[in-house]
Design brief:
The chain is α/β, with parallel strands linked by helices.
Length: 165
């Protein structure tokens, strides 16, 4: 049996890692175990299904799926599990990720894919959403998340604007 990973981070290709590494970094920062894979809903559907099943068997609690263009990956993952699956639209060459965003938010009733912002902010916020979900039943995680939020607030409170020359 492989090591327990609480979060499965999946992207359609290795080129999506530049965006999805933000989700991995948030998981790492909060001490949340994860496994990141490049698996395609179209080119490696069997391997994707096997990975989802393996992750569930090993205690995974949520998935974060990033995809560009038609962005089917998040929906395919969500259709194969009852675990929360968060979608991250990847910026695309021609439509800058709007195509991905629209594809993800149009999931049929009954198969939800909570979808975050396009790009790096969406990947980081997807992981923060998972952290918040885990914090519901983990007091230590709740403390870490509250500390993170407090630090964000303090940065705003202490920020100063530059003087005009």
């Amino acid at each position: 049996m492989s090591e327990k990973k609480l979060v499965g981070i999946v992207m359609g290709s290795t080129s999506d890692w530049e965006v999805m590494k933000e989700a991995a970094q948030v998981c790492k920062d909060f001490g949340v175990s994860y496994e990141a894979r490049a698996l395609s809903a179209h080119r490696t559907p069997v391997e994707l299904e096997e990975w989802i099943e393996q992750m569930q068997e090993n205690g995974c609690q949520a998935f974060i799926a990033g995809a560009g263009g038609a962005a089917h990956l998040a929906g395919v993952v969500a259709a194969q599990t009852i675990l929360p699956t968060f979608g991250v639209p990847i910026p695309s060459k021609y439509m800058k990720g709007l195509d991905s965003l629209l594809a993800m938010v149009q999931m049929p009733k009954g198969i939800p894919v909570p979808t975050l912002a396009i790009g790096e902010a969406g990947a980081a916020n997807a992981a923060l959403s998972v952290v918040a979900m885990l914090a519901l039943h983990d007091p230590e995680m709740k403390e870490k998340l509250q500390s993170f939020r407090d630090k964000q607030s303090e940065k705003v409170r202490t920020a100063t604007l530059p003087e005009l020359g």
